[in-house]
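hey can u run this one w/ EPU bound, need the structure tokens asap thx
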Amino acid sequence: MVIEQNVSLQTFNTFGIQAKAKSYCNITNEATLTEILKNKDNQALFVLGGGSNMLLTKDIEALVLHINLKGIEVIKETEDSVLVKAMAGENWHQFVLWCLEHNFGGIENLSLIPGNVGTSPIQNIGAYGIELKDVFESCDAIKISNQEKKIFKIEDCKFGYRESVFKQELKDEYIITSVTFRLSKKNHRLHTNYGAIKEHLNTWGIKNPSIKDVSNAVIAIRQSKLPDPKDIGNSGSFFKNPVISISQFEQLQTNFPEAPFYKVSDTLVKVPAGWLIEQAGFKGKRFNNYGVHNKQALVLVNYGSAKGSDIYKLAKLIQNTVERLFSISIETEVNII
Ligand code: EPU
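ok here u go:
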């Protein structure tokens, strides 16, 4: 086990923010992880996965545990379905591609989401009509305080919209080491209702799409409006879409009849934060080396060497402006460190 001092985290966060870890350990096996946790004494820890959902506004004065556990295996299968276990450090999109190669269906709509498998349950990643919870079987985790292993079943995780128990009552208590998914082997249930998926498949002349076709459509949509962190630093949606009452939404509609929404229940609707931010005039706004993406206002970007604290100030300005104009508060989806 090698513990390094003063390590740059710039390549380990998709925003590409320059910040340092006081100390850092690359974790490639569970034995090392357990050993570190056992001997940590009072040392502060910071658990790092794919670094795709955080904004670093300062150096991390802790021991950063970079979870790079690897491996994918089929643990059980029937004629129709399969349980696949992937270790926490597997790159999410590479895992999606592995499933497509094996013709395992269920996560094709989640193609190209940045980040790692191990962090996918924490915020119940979702896109184009599918959420992680729809394919989740269980996850293995280690309790930081006593190194006990625990298996979390779906009912233990309390999944919600970009939410789980790991962001709430069990925050910072467990390290997820692997996730097991229940996927289909045949008669895949495709989710192609999302308008742009249908449009892409039609344009390509595909009448009976395969899971690979759906994945290709999702990849094309994402590439058309979401910046690739390899080119422009970002963390995907910076804010969550706010959920408001129907009566508040009706008020909004009097001034903005074209306001988009998704119905959540008989009394609640979700309004796209990207739309609110665009109406507030921020879409495509650039401030020196950071700004708001020009094709999706929900995404804040680092054009190069921006400071996390500057991006955080912009996020606050956006939140305050949206609140002032629409009386709607938008919460960050990204963790501010
Ligand atoms: N919109 C605007 N202006 C914008 C952005 C969006 O008017 O700048 C409008 C669009 O025209 C559309 C509506 O808002 O009517 C919804 O836009 P979009 O389909 O792009 O989805 P979203 O609600 O903005 C959510 C997720 C994305 C996910 C997409 C597709 C959240 C916070 N974000 O975005 O997730 O890819 O749906 O399912 O729920 C992520 O979490 O990092 C992420 C990218």
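The longest helix spans residues 308-326. anyway lmk if its weird
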